[in-house]
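Hello,

Our lab assistant flagged a job as stuck in the queue for most of the afternoon. It eventually completed. Since we weren't sure the result was trustworthy after the delay, we are filing this so someone can double-check. Below is the sequence as submitted and the structure that was eventually returned. Let us know if re-running is recommended.
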Amino acid sequence: MKTLDEQFETLLVEEVEPGIALVTLNRPARFNAMTNTMFVELERLAWGLETEDTCRVVVLTGAGQAFCAGYDLADADDLPNLGALGMLDQQERAARALASIRSLRVPVIAAVNGAAAGGGLALALAADIRLASSAAKFNAAFVRIGLSAGDLGTSWLLTRLIGPAKTSEICFTGRIVQAAEAGELGIVNSVCDGDVVAAAVALARLIVANSPGGVELSKRALQANLEVGSYAAAIELENRGQALLTRSPDMSEALTAFKEKRAPQFQGK
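-- returned structure --
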């Protein structure tokens, strides 16, 4: 992957297995707290990965003991002094970064290895799948610093994951949700006793074994149908995706492989 050759100040990027990119937030001394540099680099990373035909899954984690502690409060002193347009620019910079990760054409798995607070929770929610280590913990810390939990997609994504009542409780109190409760609520898919990154890579391996087009259009349908308001609209979108995929040689290869009792060799075309 050419993106692996790029230099980032706040991120580490490596191809751990063919098709699997591991992205590590790399500010461990600050619990991987977000800065404007990180926002810019996340967006730039997403642009690069979008052009990588060999990238099939992205695993996102944090260096050290935390996943991401949210916006770095050491950089927050000037926020109250920004004008309305300046603050809007700041918000949009952060929102673009998280939206670019969520919008990647390939699945994103968050391997939450520690605290995911505020914007760190929002980043985890932006992933398609979340795995947590037993040390993981989550909180919508916004109200504790005089801000709203309507930030970086949290109010939209968390409500759809666990419902409005539990989301309201977590967001209004700012309380910490430990890994076990996060699993019970459905914030994360599962809690891992061992290495959460290894578990995420193992899951990514199962995804890579499938047809690239099938996975990509499945992600597109799942995300797009969160936005539409009717069953009929969802069916229409699904019909178009399936029709496109029948034009791909990967479908014929899958059927042939099934008949020949062998693993398919997908081309992703």
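-- support follow-up --
The delay was a queue issue, not a problem with the job. The result is valid. The beta strands are 11-17, 20-25, 57-62, 108-112, 115-117, 129-133, 137-139, 177-178, 190-192. The mean pLDDT is 90.
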